[in-house]
Design a protein that fits this description.
The protein is α/β, with parallel strands linked by helices. The protein is built from 6 helices and 9 strands, in the order βαβββαβαβαβαββα. The strands form 3 sheets. Strands 2-1-6-5-7 form a 5-stranded parallel β-sheet. A two-stranded antiparallel sheet has the order 3-4. It has a two-stranded antiparallel ribbon with strand order 8-9. The protein is elongated and about 70 Å long.
Length: about 210
């Protein structure tokens, strides 16, 4: 089983992971998801997990100590854990990353916020910085959910059949279902005839042509 250890200031943002296929995968113990709020690892009464950046500049930076303690709690005595820092300055997340990460038993995902995470966290745990796209989001929560979704789908049994993985079949950007004819504003929209033939060879050729 692959367990995701998510370090986040906003665990309530992850409601998506309690729905659909991801929820079922957790119930069937195909994957596990645990949350660690850095504020729970602070010492002051205000539970301060961020501070002003050295050298000046806008915004706040997430402090090292609370995150380090959260990671230690997450993977103490667990060998082979991978630590990932979600950052717009990281490497683009690809299917090759997904293939590599899915072989681990424990993945730590640090959802950065504000102006980022104290760099010493990445140095201590040799964390790999990952970005899910060439844009900047408010925080690392959405990217963390993307990574969980992508990796969870690769775990055996999560999708029911391995053929359900788009990576393993000839998928088409065009898909249709019933009814055969859909009427909208007096115009008929039909399912392509080839999909109604039952000729699997022709159907696969049609799907492949749509991917070009």
């Amino acid at each position: 089983m692959l367990t995701f250890h998510i370090i986040t200031l906003f665990p309530e943002a992850f409601s998506y992971l309690e729905t659909s296929i991801i929820r079922r995968a957790q119930k069937q113990k195909k994957i596990g998801i645990k949350f660690y709020n850095p504020r729970d690892f602070t010492k002051d009464k205000h539970r301060t997990a961020d501070d002003r950046p050295y050298g000046g500049g806008p915004g706040m930076v997430m402090k090292a100590e609370p995150i380090v303690k959260a990671i230690e709690r997450a993977v103490s005595r667990r060998k082979g854990s991978r630590v990932i820092l979600l950052s717009p300055r990281g490497k683009q997340f690809t299917k090759n990353h997904a293939k590599e990460f899915s072989k681990r038993k424990d993945i730590v995902l640090i959802a950065g916020h504000y102006e980022g995470v104290d760099e010493r966290v990445a140095k201590i745990f040799k964390a790999e910085k990952i970005s899910v796209g060439p844009y900047v989001l408010t925080g690392g929560e959405l990217p963390a959910m993307v990574v969980v979704d992508v990796l969870a789908r690769k775990m055996k049994g999560v999708l029911g059949k391995i053929e359900s993985l788009e990576e393993n079949r000839v998928a088409s950007p065009e898909v249709y279902t019933r009814p055969e004819v859909f009427l909208y504003k007096k115009k008929k929209y039909r399912v392509p005839n080839v999909l109604l033939t039952g000729d699997h060879k022709r159907i696969e050729e049609w799907r492949a042509s749509k991917k070009r």
